[in-house]
From TrEMBL:
Pfam hit, one: MerR_1
Organism encoding this protein: Chitinophaga pinensis
BP terms from Gene Ontology: regulation of DNA-templated transcription
An annotated Gene Ontology molecular function: DNA binding
Gene3D superfamilies given in the database record: 1.10.1660.10, Cobalamin-binding domain, Methionine synthase domain
Ranges for domain HTH merR-type: 6-47
Domain B12-binding N-terminal residue range list: 70-137
Matches recorded under InterPro entries: Cbl-bd_cap, Cobalamin-bd_sf, DNA-bd_dom_put_sf, MerR-type_HTH_dom, Meth_synthase_dom
Name recorded for this polypeptide: Cobalamin B12-binding domain-containing protein
Length: 270
């Protein structure tokens, strides 16, 4: 958009790979906003940085009429908790908590992943945003004020050893509790050897696990077979990316889930 007019000037690494710093990312957002509000790129190219920022602010970048994605991205870039909270609250009022997470936050995490791979954000910014979402999910779970029946189904949730990205699992825990399940949340990087004893003590009705780190087909098959042998009478849901070609070889009580909505649909029927 701004490249032809020379508006954006990316930096270069020692190996000549192009990257954008925080100031350039914010400038891209401002240019995009002005263009959406009728400013031609040729006109924007004649403005200096201060004029672009001032014009963008005047058309409501930080108002309720501003783009939600742009506000989330700005809160990430600037590590601005106040902007994040106001944007998240606005989404909550319009969509409710569950739809905000499913339809807005998780797609935004995908965008963050692309930006991280491209080198346009750093790990500290990603951690900042992830921890804000983590806190929101934990608070929403605590605020449910639901007391499951003693006969309610029990769901055991955990991530295998080495898996530290628990945002998705935390949301599953919230959604299951909201649907009347009793949940036992073990969290991230649970040693495999301890699972059999946990399953024996808790006697869950279903198990939910998952992984985001790259894994070979052989390692996934080994993990899923051992876990399914621990609990042969339970449905065990594996979330996240599944290596190609293994679904047809999984144990009969293994279930694979492609996305959040499909898991919510399945568990609602369980």
């Amino acid at each position: 958009m701004g490249k032809r007019y020379g508006i954006i000037k990316p930096g270069r690494t020692d190996t000549n790979i192009r990257y954008y710093g925080n100031d350039e990312l914010k400038k891209i957002l401002n240019i995009s906003l002005l263009n959406q509000h009728g400013y031609k790129i040729s006109t924007i190219s004649e403005m200096n940085d201060e004029e672009i920022a001032e014009k963008a602010s005047s058309v409501g970048l930080f108002s309720q009429n501003g783009s939600t994605d742009e506000n989330l991205l700005l809160s990430l870039i600037d590590m601005d908790e106040q902007l994040f909270n106001s944007t998240f609250s606005g989404l909550m009022m319009k969509r409710g908590f569950e739809d905000t997470i499913i339809s807005c936050i998780f797609p935004f995490f995908h965008r963050i992943g692309i930006m991280w791979q491209a080198g346009t954000i750093n790990p500290a910014q990603e951690h900042f945003f992830s921890n804000l979402i983590r806190s929101k999910i934990i608070m929403a779970t605590e605020a449910l004020n639901k007391h499951p029946e003693t006969s309610a189904n029990v769901a055991l949730l955990f991530l295998p050893e080495g898996e530290l990205h628990e945002i998705g699992l935390l949301f599953y825990n919230y959604a299951l509790r909201a649907r009347g399940y009793r949940t036992i949340y073990l969290g991230q990087s649970v040693p495999h050897d301890s699972l059999y004893r946990v399953i024996t003590i808790c006697k869950p009705d279903l198990i939910i696990t998952g992984m985001t780190n790259p894994i070979t087909s052989n390692d996934f098959m080994s993990f899923s077979q051992q876990l399914c042998e621990f609990a042969p009478g339970l449905n065990i849901y594996f979330t996240g990316p599944i290596p190609a070609g293994v679904r047809e070889m999984l144990p009969p009580n293994a279930r694979t889930v492609n996305d959040l909505l499909s898991l919510m649909h399945i568990t609602q029927k369980a």
